[in-house]
Amino acid sequence: MPDMQQDSIGFAGPDSLGHFGPYGGTFVGETLIAAVEELSRVYEEVSKDPEFWAEYDHDLKYYVGRPSPLYLAERLTAAAGGAKIYLKREDLNHTGAHKVNNTIGQALLAKRMGKTRIIAETGAGQHGVASATVAARLGLECFVYMGAEDIQRQAPNVYRMKLLGATVVSVDSGSRTLKDAMNEALRDWATNVDSTYYIIGTVAGPHPYPQIVRDFQCIIGRETREQSLAQLGQLPDALVACVGGGSNAIGMFHPFLNDSSVAMYGVEAGGDGVETGRHAAPLSAGVPGVLHGNRTYLMTDSGGQIMETHSVSAGLDYPGVGPEHAWLKDLKRVNYVNATDSEAMKAFHQLTRLEGIIPALESAHAVAYAMRLAATMAPEQSVVINLSGRGDKDIQTVAKLEGLTL
Amino acid sequence: MSRISEVSAEAAQQGRKLLIPYVVAGDPDLPTTLKLMHKLVADGADMIELGVPFSDPSSDGPVIQRGVERAIAGGTNLAKVLDLVAEFRLQNSSTPIVLMGYLNPVEIMGYEAFATRASDVGVDGVLIVDMPPSEASGLCDLLKERRIDTIFLVAPTTTDTRCAQIVANCSGYLYYVSLKGVTGAALLDTESVRLSIEKLRKMTDLPIVIGFGIKDAASARTMGALSEGVIIGSALVERIEKLSPGDTSSAQQLAHVTEVIKTAREALDSL
Ligand SMILES: Cc1ncc(COP(=O)(O)O)c(C=O)c1O
Q1: What pLDDT score was predicted for residue A152?
Q2: Low-confidence ranges of chain B (pLDDT < 70)
Q3: CB–CB of B134 and A26 under 8 A?
Q4: Which one, of B231, B36, B216, lies nearest residue B153 by Cα?
């Protein structure tokens, strides 16, 4: 069942129209309104149905391989020189990232709604792979929209999607990355609205997506909570997660929002450094605006055009962020910070060499910040990093940055 | 009465269908758009929908997307589109101008600043495609205070309950989207459009105009027969695509662009 903590005051949300304070909402063209309303209706019904959650839990256990371990990274801890660092091992999930927690849930919704066709947008390709995977399993047709630039830098995932039977559609408009893939998926949805279920891969998009995706990702935080109590005998002092659209972060944070002793850090992509303007850190350096169906912090110029973003990691290369994060920023419940490309690269190598775990470049941003943070904390304290994915998909990018071709 | 209502009422009285071209402001450049606007009026446009370029036009098909990209490449933004309207008004004080676009540029300018400037330069209507009535009250009220109409879309997927909500919030005209999809698609189902318009008529006295997918005299005539008028967008933008930026187009080239409006006017007038 979704996280019941939403009922307690303070961090409740969204309201019935999808608002988290001034953020969120349903800013889409009229053609899609009926579709998002239908989804809201179905989800509202389903979220009260224990059978639905039993099926979801069953799939997560037997298909995804949950629960994922909470692992004490001793050598990483020693290298940082402070608080104990634990890794929540979402990289061990089937398909290699947290994204599958959400696609399993949304595929069940698609099935309930009788949809025969799945579409998805993808940046790093992890969500595309996770969508193609559930579509294969249910025998549904699957189209994945992906920016032409991302197709280049995430070639292994493109091939994985094709093996799984999905059609990968290259998006050549705009900046040719994740945001443009999302525009194209929205256009497809408006055109094929009767037959098609759109699986959004992060806590963005119009209501009810930010809520649905969060609820499906909250399994991360719920497990972490239980595992912390069992393994540490207490809650962790700090949680750290990378923030692209924000789904792995909200999934980790949400079940802890009312635990005021737990500090939270969402790590955005600092790219070349936030001061250079070449980054993907809307919570650090953006302003509120409206994109892809919701009001949130965005990277936008003074004329209201969405700016091009930059990050070494395709999955963080997005100019917006889930509206609940915007709200949590304003409420000062979560600290939003960033790590640069080079910090992430360094952390990528450190985790690989010290722990034998190759992280996704997205997750490496969280590792980089967590090491900085741990160094400022006492050895009896603890930090949990949400290790959102594994880095197999990134080895070509890393090799290229180091002047090698594979 | 707003300028839009005046023009519609006059057209209704004369038995004339409304013809509303859509162009992207700044495509291929702002001086050319200004010339095109005057030429469109001369060739039979009753009002003009002026597209405000936005980097992420998720309700638009490839033709208008490319138009928007050209306009943005030339540096057009909302502030410059408002300046363009001011310039148009120096020579034309009768043709209603409707700004059509996405919400973010308006959010970033600020609702109050936008509404005030829009009113000052002589904008008559505003249509924000990603702003449904449930999210519109803040902007709508500011526009209404300045006698600017807020226009909403009704789609084939719009439920009856929603139609009621939309007509309650809409002024000027009601924009019926003829198909499921994005701008420029071409799959008109005349019978289903007819039924939808019939239903809408029972809910509102607003003029109903049809857009998305009308590309020539024949489709204008078919859709015009079912409604108070038609909007032609992608077919125009497709022709504008052949113009070069830098305000270099000859009168003949502009006439070629607006020919589609001229022939649509003739088709509508023959109804
Ligand atoms: C491994 C991994 N982590 C993080 C992200 C960022 O997404 P989100 O912020 O929604 O978790 C992605 C996106 O592709 C990813 O693949």
Answers
A1: 87
A2: 186-188
A3: yes
A4: B231
Mean pLDDT (whole number) for A217-243: 98
Is the link from the previous residue into B28 a cis peptide, with omega within 30 of 0? yes
Taking CA atoms only, the protein residue closest to ligand 1 atom 15 is A315
ipTM over 0.90: yes
Tell me the CA–centroid distance for residue A309 and ligand 1, in Å.
Answer: 15
Interface of B with A in 73-112 (CB under 8 A): 77-79, 102-109
In 3-state terms, what secondary structure has residue A370? Answer: helix
User: pLDDT of B117-163, one tens digit each?
Assistant: 999 999 999 999 999 999 999 999 999 999 999 999 999 999 999 99
- Asked if residue A203 has pLDDT above 70, the reply is yes
Residue B14 neighbours by CB under 8 Å, 6+ apart:
none
Please check the confidence at residue A6 and state whether its pLDDT lies above 70.
no
What is the token pair recorded at B122?
Answer: 């002589």
* DSSP string computed for A29-72: -HHHHHHHHHHHHHHHHHTT-HHHHHHHHHHIIIII-PSPPEEE
- Pocket residues: Cβ below 6 A from ligand 1: A 97, 99, 123-124, 126-127, 202, 242-249, 315-316, 360, 362-363, 388-389
Q: What type of residue sits at position A70? A: L
Average pLDDT of chain A, as a whole number:
95
pLDDT at A4 over 60: no
3-class SS at A144? strand
- Per the structure block, which two tokens stand in for A308? 């091009």
**Dihedral-angle region of residue B237 (phi above 0 means left; psi in -120 to 50 means alpha; beta otherwise):** alpha
pLDDT score for B189: 85
Residue A3 has pLDDT above 60, yes or no: no
- Cα–Cα distance, A13 to A2 (Å, whole number): 13
The residue behind tokens 């209201």 is: A304
pLDDT at A5: 42
Residue of A nearest to B155 (CA): A31
Interface test with B, best of A38, A184, A200, A290 (most B CBs within 10 A): A290
8 Å CB contact between B54 and A305: yes
Q: Which residues of B134-154 are buried (b: 16+ CB within 10 A; e: fewer)?
A: bbbeebbebbeeeebbbbbbb
Pairing of strands A293-298, A23-27: antiparallel
Residue located via tokens 């972060």: A249
Q: How far is B260 from chain A (nearest CA, A)?
A: 26
